[in-house]
Amino acid sequence: MLGACAVWPLVTSAVHGGRPEGVLLAVLALAAGFAAGRITGVLLPVAAPCAGALAGLVLTVTVRLGPGPEITPQLGHAGATAGVLTLSAGAACCAAWATSVPAQRVALWLLAAGVTAAAALLDSTTGAVTCCAVLVCSLAAGRLHHRGPALAASAVAAVLVTGLIWAVAGNALPGGLAAPLTDRLTPHRVDLWRDALGMVRRQSALGVGPGRFGELSTTAAQPTLSDGKPHSALLQTAAEQGVVGLLLLSAVFCWVLFALWRSQRPTPVVLTAGATLTALAAIAAIGNALSFTTVSVGAGLLAGLATARPLAEGPAAHGAPSACGRDLQRGDRPAG
């Protein structure tokens, strides 16, 4: 699936021109992070997510996550900061559920709370909200025994966010709801979304070509501080790669949820990762988070940690039920 996500931008750029390097780099970063997560999740199931959470927190506090001074805070590094902090909080919660030592679990919960506080201190409103949502979902995950309904709820939440973004771009919301949302999102961002939706309507099959939004958007061409992006992963993919590119992006997210459902990791770890990645999807839908390699690597790393499986399993004792049989006896789904 990631291979298809890499090939399709090459096809669209061959037809309409463009620069597919950014998409290829994002796919490579996601694949590399996922592979690293699968490996370290087996070898260091607690230390690896803990280290990832600390690395994300330190990176956000000490390094300005922005591509350059030409990007405004509202449309530049703010989405990346919220994305990295959300992934850090999710990784800390996953590590807390992965350990069986009470003292370590308390320390990791405090780390997750510290990441949330850091988001508030850095004036990242989106990051603070998503970190709190991840913490609440993670605490609730400890009381759930069936992961299917919770992961289905994550998929529904992603669909609702997608529909809302599309409705705002298409000016389909009633005035009483559209005006506050436009003020919160900023009129400049909404104008970028509408330009992207116009490109989708004109070139729905192949899009206008990777990296060409800034050349064709009238809003991005205005004499304002802009980076030539619509600041929505959904609308950017649909505008530059067409409906096929958008379907591939959606398929990757659905595949991650399916892989989490089949994962052999404990259910609280799986549901925490699912909630974190859903929150990141919401951030990417209204911002430019996925344009930053750090966010793509972090998303792949968390998905890999939550889907890691043992390299080998010892033979079951004679007469003892298999792992699949135990799951079926509990009414759960079979192990992946």
Low-confidence stretches: 66-75, 314-331
**Measured distance between first and last alpha carbons:** 19 Å
What pattern of helices and strands is seen along the backbone? HHHHHHHHHHHHHH
Rg: 20 Å
Instruction: Name the overall outline.
Output: globular
Query: So how many helices?
Result: 14
**Global mean pLDDT:** 86
Structural class call reads mainly alpha
Q: Beta-sheet strand percentage?
A: under 5%
Largest sheet: none
Please bin the fraction of helical residues: over 70%
- Tell me how many strands there are: 0
Give the topology.
Elements: H1 2-16, H2 21-43, H3 47-62, H4 77-98, H5 102-121, H6 125-141, H7 147-169, H8 175-185, H9 187-202, H10 213-216, H11 233-262, H12 267-286, H13 293-307, H14 323-329
Helix pairs in contact: 1-2, 1-11, 2-13, 3-4, 3-5, 3-13, 4-5, 4-6, 4-12, 4-13, 5-6, 6-12, 7-9, 7-11, 7-12, 8-9, 9-11, 11-12, 12-13
Descriptive report:
The protein has 336 residues and is mostly helical. It has 14 helices and no strands. The chain is globular and about 55 Å long. It starts with a helix and ends in a 7-residue tail after the last helix.
